[in-house]
Amino acid sequence: IESFHCIATGTKSLSQFRASSSCSWPSSLAAKKGEKKTKPKMLSRKATCNSHGQDSSYFLGWQEYEKNPYDEVRNPTGIIQMGLAENQLSFDLLESWLKNNPDAAGFKRDGESIFRELALFQDYHGLPAFKNALVEFMAEIRGNNVKFDPSKLVLTAGATSANETLMFCLAEPGDAFLLPTPYYPGFDRDLKWRTGVEIVPIQCHSSNNFRITESALEEAYQQAEKQNLKVKGVLVTNPSNPLGTTLSMHELNLLVTFIDSKGIHLISDEIYSGTVFSSPNFISIMEVLIQRNYMNTEVWNRVHIVFSLSKDLGLPGFRVGALYSNDDMVVAAATKMSSFGLVSSQTQYLLSAMLSDKEFTRGYIYENQKRLKKRHEMLVQGLEKAGIRCLKSNASLFCWVDMRHLLSSKSFEAEIELWKKIVYNVGLNISPGSSCHCTEPGWFRVCFANMSEETLNLAMQRIKAFVDTTTATTDSTATNNNQSHHQSNKNSRRKSVTKWVFRLSFHGRESER
């Protein structure tokens, strides 16, 4: 047991594990000599470790929002939630389909109830009709440039489960995956907490709009080796969370070449693939492999995709995720693991009917992307009026916002100070870049698709008023400093003149003597 916990936490010895600040020994097990022994707590190390990542500012912002949530009528001065990447822009399209398809919503087939059939136990392979409909939907989002085999698809309870399952399949506790920064804060929980896998950052910078480079990949790999970590793969989000940008063909080729040369895996988290609302178009990693004729190589089996209906279809509460792999052993192991987080039969039946309706899916994809583009423009333009710019983006449910000019100093302490002001004083919950492991302070992720247009306009009014006040205060302080400096110089000149007159008078008297 001791060995397992040491491995799971990345420590080399039991003494190091005991010394870990996040996993301290219970006081009952650390009784001083002579003290009466108490009954040890009947909890596991996992339960008592503070390694979940819940204390991140990303999650703390949610907690503050929940204490004081904005409501147009009941709480108009409350905190507006702009830290949650939910797509609420196209619910009316989904609701319209449900109204026009009462059999699917009522669990009927040809007018006859199949409630009992769906209520009984289903094995973890999933309903064939749903898996077929899901892979066709995935292909449609990608412009049918690539096809997917339903036998290589494993259903999971959301993308969180899919990513963790892949970690269990591909890595041992203490192994590492490389992730480009900034990255989704939840990965610290999803990839590490239960698996014992380590994350090594691929450092990306604003100087090239946070693009992945060959040198950054190599530096991250070497850094892992210095830490005595065995690198098992690279994980990327495409489109990027939190950047809201799609990976370029150049970056995708770099990644494939890199994992080929190192003999490691590549996970492409493509849960935002259906949110691309402007050029350049989304390119799936599978398209790159096919174009480079990797189908019958080892690399073909070392590339895996994560997909979900949480973002593209706006159904995070349905908990529908999937992983796709060309490796039969990965598919077999992941299928067995999926029994710990299955998608309900009722959900599968309903969505298989919805996704099989090609007229609906075509119309939904087009209209949803159109609405996302409009909402994205509202946020960007609203922030521009406040003197704040965003990284140019073409996808997802958020923008990567540059507030470096509002920092009191170029430090992450100043970033958190600014974040607290925005949460508590302005009443907006946004995610600081440090929670996304950004290398530069002053960047924030701001979501725009989980609220009404009226609420977004109010949020923009609040941030503009804050910036205007902050700028006015800064200008006033600078003016006062300049005036003080001017007065100080004036007084200094007076003193100099006085001293000069005194010396001149004294010199004259000496001459007269």
TrEMBL record:
Source species: Escallonia herrerae
UniProt domain Aminotransferase class I/classII large: residue ranges: 80-463
Catalytic activity from the UniProt record: S-adenosyl-L-methionine = 1-aminocyclopropane-1-carboxylate + S-methyl-5'-thioadenosine + H(+)
Needed co-factor(s): pyridoxal 5'-phosphate
Enzyme Commission number: 4.4.1.14
Alphabetized UniProt keyword annotations: Ethylene biosynthesis, Fruit ripening, Lyase, Pyridoxal phosphate, S-adenosyl-L-methionine
GO biological processes: ethylene biosynthetic process; fruit ripening
Molecular functions (GO terms): 1-aminocyclopropane-1-carboxylate synthase activity; pyridoxal phosphate binding; transaminase activity
Pathway: Alkene biosynthesis; ethylene biosynthesis via S-adenosyl-L-methionine; ethylene from S-adenosyl-L-methionine: step 1/2
Domain of life: Eukaryota
Matches recorded under PROSITE patterns: AA_TRANSFER_CLASS_1 (PS00105)
Family note: Belongs to the class-I pyridoxal-phosphate-dependent aminotransferase family.
Protein name: 1-aminocyclopropane-1-carboxylate synthase
Basic residues compositional bias, start-end: 487-496
Pfam families: Aminotran_1_2 (PF00155)
Transferase recorded as keyword: no
